[in-house]
Amino acid sequence: MKSTRATQEPAWVRYGLLSVGLGFLFFFLGLPLVAVFVEALAQGVPIYVEALKEPETASAIGLTVGIALAVLPFNIAFGVAAAWAIAKFEFRGKSLLITLIDLPFAVSPVVAGLIFILLFGSQGTFGNWLSEHDIKIIFAVPGMILATLFITFPFIARELIPLMQSQGKDEEEAAVSLGASGFQMFWRVTLPNIKWGLLYGVILSNARAMGEFGAVSVVSGHIRGETNTLPLHVEILYNEYNAIGAFAAASILALLALVTLVAKTIVEWRMKKETDMLSAVLLTLLRLLAVLLRTVFVGASRHGHFSGVPNKEI
């Protein structure tokens, strides 16, 4: 009688589930992506290139990349500092700090944009002071940077916290005990251990920054050529029935997404490879330690160290 394991499904179930998953990916991810490039190139490559050469489109591309680069150093500094504090130390308010890090995930981006208007708008809390000093934040690039920073700052911290917690703090303590300074400990011990996790968080944060729409839309003012990022520019072109221009601009976002996906896959592969290599090294060391302990134990037993009776020579 042929028996099967309780956890082994029939072949038609496995292939059916696989087909459903692949079909979902194709219709909801692959097909729209292909449609963007098909529509963008519908009237030929020269028209596509001309659409991308429009001054407003070029300005939107430059502003999108500029904002992503502007928020990146702050995200790295905050992410590493927050992950270091949470993973390596115990202090009052630790749970509150973790909650604050998760706040952008819970708050709608539109609400986040409105918060900045209430703070820095002309009728906001700091509006009069900003007007007196001729500082413009809302409906200007600084407000867009602040909104993007609020949306993206949790990504690096959330990627590093579990990684640093799993690594423990023995290596840092050993470095300090050997006389390393705080900077030397971070640069030579901590940073090499978290480099791939940090890069992974940077990729996710950068992708989120370039694709942000809600919060930036609220604080930008939609000033063409000045405060329109690429997602906002796509919306304006599409609302004006400029399909070629809209899809051409959207294709740039799609290309950025594909580049991000490739970079993310490479980093994941390197992280897995490094983890597997570390696991193999640790396993080898444990085996060597077990052999060494066994040798010591057998040698001590032969010499009577565990029986309390010394061996007698015959």
Task: Explain how this protein is built.
The protein has 314 residues and is mainly α. It has one domain: MetI-like fold (Orthogonal Bundle), CATH 1.10.3720.10. Helix content is 78%, strand content 0%. Helix 3 packs across helix 11 and helix 8 packs antiparallel against helix 12.
What is the structure about, briefly put?
By secondary structure, this protein is mainly α. Helix content is 78%, strand content 0%. Helix 2 packs across helix 14 (243-302), helix 3 (55-88) packs parallel to helix 9 (154-167) and helix 13 packs antiparallel against helix 14.
Query: Percent helix among the residues?
Result: over 70%
Supply the CATH architecture.
Orthogonal Bundle
**Superfamily at the CATH H level?**
MetI-like
Mean pLDDT, all residues: 84
CATH class: Mainly Alpha
The topology string of helices and strands comes to HHHHHHHHHHHHHH
Give the count of helical stretches: 14
Q: How far from one another are the termini?
A: 65 Å
The fold-level CATH name is MetI-like fold
* Low-pLDDT windows of residues: none
The number of distinct structural domains comes to 1
What's the Cα radius of gyration? 28 Å
Tags for this entry?
MetI-like fold; mainly alpha; 314 residues
